[in-house]
Amino acid sequence: MRCAEEIRRLWPVAYARCVRDKLEKVVPLSSHLALTACIQRCIARRRFMLQGSGLKVTLRGGLERLVRELGEEKVEELPYVAGLLHDLGKASTYYLTRYSREEVTFPGHEHVIALLLEYMASKEESEGYIAAYDLLAKTISRHHAAMDKRHPNKFFSGSGSISYISKVLRGMLHHTSFINNLARYCGSRDSLCYYTLNSISRSLNEISRTWGEDTPSNILLYANPIKIFGLSGLASASELTVYAFTTVLTGTLIVADNISAEFCEERGSDDGASSTYVTYWKWELGLRGDEGFKNLLRDCLNSCIPELPDECTYLKRHT
């Protein structure tokens, strides 16, 4: 099939659709991750004050220690890093076999990255980074939770989850070059973003070297912290506070992901519940008209990565 071959040539992609064996729409994975990261950071700052003094007000109930252990700047990065990593599981070549009904599908991609983050947390010595990886894993694993069988508690309880994770993870093992290239969106080498991407690459290389018959079931053990709201590395944090902060990170990720897809990339979503959620949050953010929404998008992208507005079709048509 010509279209399938074209998708393989352009891999990794966030979205690809063919019509009559002709590639009609494709979204590079790297640009989708960058767009989502910038929009999520902007929304988190605008609505939840995840910045500066507002950050300290938001992080109570035991999470004040997260700022002390990790540093204020790195905690501020959490929404951005969640956006940059949220669809990274789509880089797995396993999904090339999921070409059906003229589209590539990516079921469960969010859980592979969440498991990797928890694996990284188990190897990390810094309590701050352990907590950050755990928060990112809980967040990313839930950004499609409204879809059928996609909540982590349901997904990881399925009888076929070990086999499935094995296939997707093996397809990730040889994509460290793509992951390393994402570092261009991180800014400083001292950033949480840069450190996390390097840790993902190292972890994939380590898993690749030590792969054995028990590897998938061993990796699946790291699902346990994802499903609960205790915080690895910071036992003093209350479950209620961790739940609230995870909900903030997940909510802003869902909104940013859908804005990127619907407006910048002009493609649909099979996650109907999330679309409704985004409509609600556009009102919460005060975006009651096209002009307000357009200005928010432009400000978000310009203040983050100046070339990104060129990746957003909505902004191109409304300039």
Tell me what you see in this structure.
The chain is mainly alpha-helical. The chain has one domain: Hypothetical protein af1432 (Orthogonal Bundle). The chain is 61% helix and 6% strand. The chain contains 17 helices and 4 strands. A two-stranded antiparallel ribbon has the order 1-2. A two-stranded antiparallel sheet has the order 3-4. Strand 3 (99-100) and strand 4 (103-104) form a beta hairpin. The model has no long low-confidence stretch (mean pLDDT 85).
Concise synopsis of the structure shown:
With 319 residues, the protein is mainly alpha-helical. It is built from 17 helices and four strands. The longest helix has 26 residues, at 239-264.
Topology record:
Elements: H1 2-10, E1 13-19, E2 22-28, H2 29-48, H3 52-58, H4 64-70, H5 72-85, E3 99-100, E4 103-104, H6 109-123, H7 127-140, H8 152-155, H9 161-172, H10 176-181, H11 192-209, H12 215-220, H13 224-227, H14 239-264, H15 272-284, H16 290-302, H17 313-317
Antiparallel strand pairs: 1-2, 3-4
Helix pairs in contact: 2-5, 2-14, 2-16, 4-5, 4-7, 5-7, 5-14, 6-7, 6-11, 7-14, 14-15
